Amino acid sequence: MAIMVGASALGLVGHMPSGPGVIPDDLIFEITRSVPPPIATFLLTSETSSEQIIEHHRKVQTNTIQIVDALANGTYMEIRQALPGVKLVQVIHVIDETSVDEALRISEDVDCLLLDSGNPNLKTKVLGGTGRIHNWELSRKIRESINIPLFLAGGLNPENVGQAIDQVQPFGLDLCNGVRTNGKLDQKKLDDFFLAIDRI
């Protein structure tokens, strides 16, 4: 459904402490095998060590890994060496000015950044799928400070996507709650979102 309306990538959500859309690794693998090129397949992983991320990826074989939490143990280089050719996208949860510094530092080690509205500092980490926007001024500041592509996520919908694109000027958009009903992709919401983009 997402590909039919124009999506250029599919986000396949592995185990998360919270948020919608989680599917089992064997289903992620099955979907990945059926997705035609040039559509990208993103594994959303909440693992926080290079060893665990590598192990998670080997179960699903996506062409991109979206790391939704901070890399606490190991390095991005270890992941690259173990999984050559797999693109690395690090999620930055835009909370305050420290997020700008974090983004600038990490941008040296990954292929893309994705700015979202979660909060990994809460007792139960919120790592995406919030349906909330964050401070797009900070997002714009990050985009202007880095030399790699940037994806924007967090509360995007047909009504605000034009403003989001105008203000942040991201490389791409990441959608979740804005195109779901009762936890599932909604054809009408997808159509409305892509129509809104076409009007920009």
Helix content range? 25-40%
CATH topology type: TIM Barrel
Strand content: 15-25%
Shape: globular
Q: Termini distance?
A: 22 Å
- Structural class, judged by helices and strands? alpha/beta
CATH superfamily: Aldolase class I
Radius of gyration: 16 Å
**pLDDT < 50 stretches:** none
- Tell me the count of domains: 1
Give a description of the structure.
There is one protein chain. The chain contains eight helices and nine strands. It is an alpha/beta fold. The protein has a single domain, classed as Alpha-Beta Barrel (TIM Barrel). The strands form two sheets. A seven-stranded parallel beta sheet has the order 1-2-3-4-5-6-7, with helices on one face. A two-stranded antiparallel ribbon has the order 8-9. The model has no long low-confidence stretch (mean pLDDT 94).
